[in-house]
Design a protein that fits this description.
Order of helices and strands: HEHEHEHEHEEEH
Radius of gyration: 16 Å
Helix content: 25-40%
Oligomer: single chain
Strand order of the largest sheet: 3-2-1-4-5-6-7
Length: about 170
């Protein structure tokens, strides 16, 4: 937070109501890697988790790939092709479902306090058992497995530590 600050204009120009959840969907070249791209079911299960646990009913998409997201969620508002607006929207939101991409990390960590659902095992979401990057496990975030089951940071930490030990050996 000391090093990354948004201008007051960015913060004021892109407000996000607390009853909205942002989906930060990564498309682009991720679509070429079937093990990296998060399928529609990940997003739907996470939306269901936010709806049931936090009574969130409104969703909007922030993405690098407008056309891909329009096919996934034709009825949702989509913010794309404006890095300032995308960053500020994530920075200002209170609820977010993130992809296994690093784009959302800094606005999540430096912006408003958030409820975050992220893919368990990060880029190995569908293969499970080992984190693709054990450094990508963040305190305070929730982690959703391929079945839609949510785990806490504390529950995931031993798995990430075991992965790190495996990589070191």
């Amino acid at each position: 937070k000391r090093y990354i600050k948004l201008s007051q204009k960015s913060i004021m120009d892109y407000p996000v109501d607390t009853d909205i959840c942002v989906l930060n969907i990564r498309g682009g070249e991720f679509k070429r890697h079937k093990n990296w791209i998060l399928k529609k079911d990940y997003w739907e299960k996470a939306m269901k988790n936010f709806s049931e646990k936090r009574e969130i009913k409104k969703f909007l998409v922030v993405t690098d790939d407008y056309e891909y997201c329009k096919k996934l969620f034709p009825n949702l508002e989509i913010i794309s092709n404006d890095i300032e607006k995308c960053y500020a929207t994530i920075y200002n939101c209170s609820n977010i479902i993130v992809s296994n991409s690093s784009f959302a990390y800094f606005p999540c960590k430096t912006g408003r306090q958030k409820k975050v659902i992220a893919p368990k095992f990060w880029a190995r979401h569908y293969q499970e058992n080992k984190w693709s990057s054990p450094c990508n496990i963040y305190e305070g975030w929730e982690w959703q497995d391929k079945n839609g089951i949510i785990s806490t940071y504390e529950e995931c930490l031993p798995l990430a530590q075991n992965t790190n030990t495996y990589y070191e050996s």
